[in-house]
Amino acid sequence: MMNTEAKTGTKNGMEEVAENENGIESEESQVKKDWYVIHTYAGYEKRVMTNLERRVDSMDMKDKIFRIMVPTEKEITSRSGQKRTVEKKVFPGYVLVEMVMDDDSWYVVRNTPGVTGFVGPGSKPVPLSEKEIIHILRSVGVVEGKPRIDFDLQQVVRVVSGPFKNFEGKVEEINSEKGTVKVSVSMFGRETPVELEFHQVIKF
Q1: 4, 18, 118, 122: which is deepest, by most CB within 10 A?
Q2: For the chain, what is the radius of gyration of the CA atoms?
Q3: SS3 for 189?
Q4: How far apart, in whole angstroms, are the C-alpha atoms of residue 41 and residue 50?
Q5: Among candidates 129, 61, 133, 65, which has minimal Cα distance to 100?
Q6: Residue 27: strand, helix, or coil
Q7: Percentage, residues of the chain above pLDDT 70
Q8: d(CA 104, CA 53)
Q9: Which alpha helices (H) appear in 8-141, and where do they start and end?
């Protein structure tokens, strides 16, 4: 189990007030929740999240374990000219947990089926920095998927759908934000650039 320093002793109300007036925070105000990363068996991320949510409810740990997350992103792929959106795990084999770290919360998480340990040196969990978690949270819940770039500049491709179906040409420009490529195709005896979506072309 995680090594933590046990706090002993009690204070009366006057001592607590005196400490707060001198700028010393009470034990309750020092409670701080952070995001931690836990290892899981491969492919068990969603199952671990569900198991941990159940344990939090059954063991009444909602005041110490708050959010459990398996970050995913949508990726647009194409097969035979058909556009398809798939959900991919951003960090395969890991689950994020927002929690107040102490012996009890550590025990609940660490002993959840499918969990192999916390990320950190030895047995000491290390929380994510504010910058790290903000970056992760911003990337979660993106409405538009990020198209996967399967093409290179000057690569020969064939158009498989749309008005230019069966045309062949070279990739002149790739726009990952819009999910489009500009392909130079031969029309009326000259090279003409046309803009197409990723799923409309395949490698030749």
Answers
A1: 118
A2: 26
A3: coil
A4: 14
A5: 65
A6: coil
A7: 76
A8: 15
A9: 13-21, 45-58, 103-110, 130-139
Across the chain, mean pLDDT equals 78
pLDDT tens, residue by residue, 126-173: 999 888 887 777 666 533 445 566 788 999 998 988 888 889 999 999
| Local structure of residue 166 (DSSP, 8 states) | T
DSSP per-residue string spanning 109-150: HHTSTTEEEESSSTT---PPPHHHHHHHHHHTT-SS-EE---
Name the burial class of residue 96, with classes exposed (0-12), middle (13-18) and buried (19+) by CB atoms within 10 angstroms of its CB: buried
Whether 96 contacts 136, CB under 8 Å: yes
Residue with tokens 């340990």: 117
pLDDT for res 29: 38
